[in-house]
Design goal:
Layout (H helix, E strand, L loop, with lengths): L7 H27 L4 H12 L4 H4 L1 H7 L4 H24 L3 H6 L2 H24 L11 H13 L3 H11 L5 H30 L4 H18 L2 H15 L4 H21 L4 H13 L6 H24 L10 H28 L4 H11 L3 H13 L5 H26 L6 H15 L8 E5 L3 H13 L6 E5 L6 H10 L5 E3 L8 H8 L5 E5 L12 H9 L4 E5 L14 E5 L4 H17 L2 E9 L5 E3 L2 E3 L3 E3 L6 H16 L3 E9 L2 H12 L3 E7 L1 E3 L2 E3 L2 H9 L3 E7 L1
Parallel strand pairs: 1-2, 1-4, 2-3, 4-5, 6-7, 6-12, 7-11, 12-15
Antiparallel strand pairs: 5-15, 8-9, 10-11, 13-14
Length: 713
């Protein structure tokens, strides 16, 4: 095979094209953002400005040099644009929540149906009423009617995704339904286009081809989420084990998307659908690399997506609209396309029992046709189904609906934050995203310490959202089946799995597994009875070697049963550190889950002689609620209380003074009758061994209540 490289002049033009398109798209996008609109509006407008409508009309010679009518030159440019849309759909897949979409239930069945059927019927009517002068050279009105029906039925998922992301609506209920319905609309639209194209080119319809496409699509979806997912995760696991750099992860993401996209392109559905599915598959895996995803998102949104949207407008020639008849029918087609999408989608939303505002937002979002409509119009022109006038009308409709969507969508949802359930979900997601330790990433629970491990499972289950996955990994020969059954009972309502390993495996196996995309290690721990070290070697090696936060749970010293009580009261010392914030997260989520009363305690050290009772230094403890405390103390308390209120935790607070911080905290535990103490600590390594601080280690040894310790490096 001989590959013919482009010439020097073609490469020069190509580089100038990219520079001009990107600069203009980013400039106009920034300008739109200054006026409160998403940048995608400016990026679409960049193509109009640089196309035959403006730049071509004012500077025809320069436009002919920059955008020549050459297949090779155009192919190079539009290849970059298609890379942009594939990358954009990968990013959209990352942010698509199938569980949330599934919870929408009935709405997910009827919204896509309404958004397809009504536009299809009105598309047929439009194709029937439009004058003969808009028919292509074939002159076949029945095929023209079917083509218009298919053209009016689709939605532009890339435009929808970019608009929702820029406006911050991607995680809204209507945002997720819009993405899912838009993808369904596009799939059906492309299949319908294939049918019409077959009729136009051969004059007959092939049921076999349609059946093959539908069967291939079903098989692809099934395999993508089963065999394909396992294959992708096997590679991802290997990469995590080798600590592969981000650029390797970027390569993996793109290769998987291109592979999926090639398959869907082969079976007759656009490659963008395969890329979208690839993003969903990788985004649902705990092995995902979020840092690499953020890099891909930055490159996509900053470079490739603007070029894609700008190239869409290069094909638009608005000069043909100067003729009154063409302009009239352009307005009619725009009205029919918008009205049909609005009515069909809104009716579907009503049948799906969605709120009116949500139905309106869905209708506006799905009305955007964008660059995919321009591609469909180009296919119609090449098949002689359309002529230049009808082509211009469809292209104008595509651009107008895309540029209408952002301002109308912003207006539709202004002042509306959704139903109470949605507001709670969004608030919880925001808090999880800002948290240090209680986050959406999966939980790893090594089991080695009998009842302490069961207590750790209980704490993790109560403090982490129930949808967060947990993995249980028994370590050692002495792990009892009763303990594993007890942990399984604790995690019954949570997605969880158990990994069987060699009984002789130690902390190395746990640390290796922790590198596989987990967010936290939950670890039950017993004190070392010899007193030589704080915990067993197993626990201390995990604390020392873990790259992710570790939640250590030491049961109450006098607890005899398999599980502690309901944690009625907890003391949480507060300070301005990351470790203190982590302990608050765990405690506040416990409170929100089971109603634990949280006693926030800030200790102000002071230098005075103290009385010593046993090993507990007990300076005369002063509890004060007076405002005459240092400004820093006041700010720390206010921040903790605000955090607690947001987490819906029950809190009271006190400021205590004393010489021994550990002694003051244990006195607080005793006075409040607390059965739980939540602490945070930064791990320091001394001669390779973890040191948690004298106060923390004293509390772990001597505090009678159950202790939760969150450690960070």
């Amino acid at each position: 095979m001989t590959i013919v490289a482009p010439g020097e002049h073609e490469l020069l033009v190509f580089w100038v094209q990219l520079a001009v398109l990107l600069a203009t798209a980013r400039l106009l996008g920034s300008l739109m953002r200054r006026f409160g609109q998403p940048s995608v509006v400016g990026e679409l407008a960049a193509g109009l400005v640089l196309g035959p409508s403006v730049f071509g009309a004012l500077f025809p010679d320069a436009a002919a040099w920059l955008f020549p009518a050459d297949d090779v030159q155009g192919g190079m440019l539009f290849a970059i644009g298609w890379i942009g849309v594939v990358l954009l759909l990968i990013v959209t897949g990352f942010e698509t929540d199938l569980s949330l979409i599934a919870r929408m239930g009935r709405a997910m069945a009827v919204v896509p149906l309404g958004s397809l059927v009504v536009p299809f019927l009105l598309g047929l009517l439009t194709g029937f009423l439009i004058p003969d002068r808009f028919l292509g050279e074939s002159g076949d009105r029945s095929i023209f009617m079917l083509f218009m029906a298919a053209a009016l039925s689709i939605s532009a998922l890339p435009v929808i995704a970019k608009v929702l992301a820029e406006l911050g609506f991607m995680r809204r209920n209507f945002g997720q339904v819009t993405i899912a319905a838009g993808m369904i609309d596009d799939i059906v639209g492309w299949i319908a286009l294939g049918i019409v194209a077959g009729l136009a080119s051969s004059g007959r319809f092939s049921y076999a081809d349609l059946g093959a496409t539908l069967a291939g699509l079903a098989v692809f979806i099934l395999l993508a989420f089963t065999v394909g997912k396992r294959a992708v995760e096997a590679v991802m696991r290997h990469m995590r084990a080798r600590s592969a750099p981000n650029y390797s992860w970027l390569a993996l993401i793109v290769v998987v998307a291109l592979t999926y996209g090639s398959i869907t392109q082969y079976i007759g559905v656009e490659a963008v659908f395969g890329a979208f599915v690839a993003g969903i598959v990788m985004g649902r895996s705990r092995l995902r690399n979020r840092d690499a995803e953020e890099v891909l998102k930055a490159v996509t949104v900053g470079v490739f997506a603007p070029i894609f949207f700008a190239t869409a407008g290069l094909r638009v020639d608005l000069t043909s609209l100067t003729e009154p008849t063409v302009l009239l029918w352009a307005g009619i087609v725009l009205f029919m396309a918008s009205a049909s999408k609005f009515v069909g989608t809104f009716l579907g939303a009503k049948l799906g029992r969605l709120p009116n505002r949500e139905g309106l937002a869905l209708a506006i979002g799905l009305n955007a046709r964008g660059s995919l409509e321009i591609i469909i119009a180009s296919v119609g022109l090449s098949l002689a189904v359309l002529n230049t006038d009808s082509y211009s009308i469809l292209v104008l409709m595509a651009m107008a609906t895309s540029m209408m969507a952002p301002p109308l969508l912003r207006l539709a949802v202004r002042g509306w934050e959704g139903e109470p359930e949605e507001r709670r979900r969004l608030k919880a997601e925001e808090m999880l995203g800002n948290n240090v330790v209680v986050r959406p990433e999966p939980i790893l629970l090594p089991v080695h310490a009998g009842p302490n491990s069961v207590t750790a499972a209980q704490v993790m289950h109560l403090a982490w959202p129930v949808e967060v996955e947990a993995t249980v990994i028994p370590v050692g020969d002495d792990v009892g089946e009763d303990d594993l059954r007890a942990i399984a009972d604790v995690f019954e309502s949570r997605p969880h799995e158990q990994i069987r390993v060699d009984p002789s495996a130690g902390f190395e196996r746990v640390l290796a597994e922790a590198a596989m995309g987990y967010g936290v290690i939950g670890l039950g721990a017993e004190l070392d009875p010899s007193g030589d070290t704080l915990f067993s070697t197993f626990v201390e090696e995990i604390i020392a070697g873990s790259a992710i936060p570790t939640v250590i749970v030491r049961r109450a010293l006098d607890l005899r049963g398999p599980l502690p009580g309901a944690f009625a009261r907890a003391v949480v010392p507060i300070g301005g550190t990351k470790a203190s914030r982590s302990a608050q997260e765990v405690a506040f989520n416990l409170s929100a889950s089971i109603g634990t009363e949280i006693h926030l305690t800030h200790v102000v050290p002071r230098s005075k002689e103290s009385e010593t009772v046993g090993s507990m230094a007990r300076s005369r403890v002063v509890v004060t609620d007076e405002p005459a405390v240092p400004d820093l103390t006041t700010r720390l308390i206010e921040e903790a209380i605000d955090f607690a209120v947001d987490a819906e935790a029950r809190v009271v607070y006190s400021v205590r003074t004393g010489v021994s911080t550990a002694g003051v905290i244990m006195a607080a535990v005793a006075e409040e009758g607390a059965d739980l103490l939540a602490l945070g600590a930064r791990v320091r390594l001394i001669d390779g061994k973890p040191f948690l601080g004298h106060n923390v280690e004293q509390l772990l040894r001597e505090c009678p209540a159950t202790v939760i310790l969150v450690t960070h490096h």
